[in-house]
């Protein structure tokens, strides 16, 4: 039986600078535990914290790894040391529960590594890149995998341009809208008027950025079984609730506003 999975390999930019390596390593260890909490009742997940500044994740569902990666990018603590993600998805023979991620060798891991290495070589680094498997005997989406790869990566590149143009407060409002979902809740949390929040969302293209994320997730879900929609929705709900329960830790108001 074939099982749909997704993979990311995450590295951190400039992790060897500013004597921050140990702090980042501890942060990633905490993030590893958070991912385990987010996914324990929704998505079967294997996580490895490697080489100080790298996380490798394998999880059930075509859209799960990208969903996790996007939320991680929005709650990330270190603005000068941003994460970047090489991603892939496809089918495997094994059940994810049976995988030992420390020793697992599979083409999907190689694809994710290749995508990560591509980003590593960029001067103006993107946050995300996919590399997908080529045509396989099982057919399915792999008939058009390279076309999907091109379209997804083009969408991610355009979204990155919009993210890069955000000011600090616009980025914060975008992240809070992802978690809270309502402008009035953001205005209450930040002690700003709803009109001010609306202006930051408009100028920071919050809706465009988040809709691109939702569209990519929906496409990945559509390539798999229909019931995966509910799986991804439940994963996002769980992540939001976890972050909401620790909102001040993820988005401390002090020092975040200009």
Shape: globular
Domain module tally:
1
Number of helices: 10
Order of helices and strands: EHEEHEHEHHHHHHH
Arithmetic mean of pLDDT: 90
Question: How many β-strands, per DSSP?
Answer: 5
CATH class: Alpha Beta
Low-confidence stretches: none
Query: What is the topology, as strand order, of the major beta sheet?
Result: 2-3-1-4-5
Strand content: 5-15%
Q: Give the helix level as a range of percent.
A: 40-55%
- Output the CATH topology: Alpha-Beta Plaits
**CATH-derived architecture:** 2-Layer Sandwich
Radius of gyration: 18 Å
Distance between the termini: 54 Å
The profile of the biggest β sheet is: 5 strands, mixed
Tags for this entry?
258 residues; alpha+beta; Alpha-Beta Plaits; five-stranded mixed β-sheet; 10 helices; 5 strands; globular
What can you tell me about this protein's structure?
- The protein is an alpha+beta fold and 258 residues long.
- The protein has a single domain, classed as Reverse transcriptase/Diguanylate cyclase domain (Alpha-Beta Plaits), CATH 3.30.70.270.
- It is 52% helix and 14% strand.
- It contains 10 helices and 5 strands, in the order βαββαβαβααααααα.
- It has a 5-stranded mixed beta sheet with strand order 2-3-1-4-5.
- Strand 4, helix 3 and strand 5 form a beta-alpha-beta unit.
- Helix 5 crosses helix 7, helix 5 packs across helix 8 and helix 6 crosses helix 7.
- The longest helix is centred in the middle third of the chain and has 20 residues.
- The radius of gyration is 18 Å and the shape is globular.
